[in-house]
Structure prediction request, 142 residues.
Amino acid sequence: MAFNNLTADIGPCDAGEAFGDTNTILSAPNNQGVVGRFVKMSNGKLVPITSKDDAWAGVLLRSITDPVDGASQEYPITDYLVEGNASVEALPVTTLPAVGAKVFMTPDGRVAEAADAGPANTEINATFIREVKKNVWFLQVG
Prediction:
């Protein structure tokens, strides 16, 4: 598979990491968005997903420049991945999806393996590549 070279060197990491050099990453003010989860745009700011019908803007990324002792929701300007490869927080599962399987977004911005894996999950334009850490999935988004 084409992802073998890219994913072979990815060790366990937290949600909110971008991988590769062909990602589309934008910046916007953050208003309580959670790192490693899908967020939406509201009044020009990134906010948490609150419904299965929310149109997501991207995955909120971990900052390499912001202080580590502050809550990530308090960072004034935050990067978010619109398209590319990222680690995203996932619901606990007993069996991982197949490589290339579509994933679903939960009403709180995490990902799940199927529409019926939780309350009102919705299919998104993202595919499962592999699990990088318990409940953190490496996805191709967009």
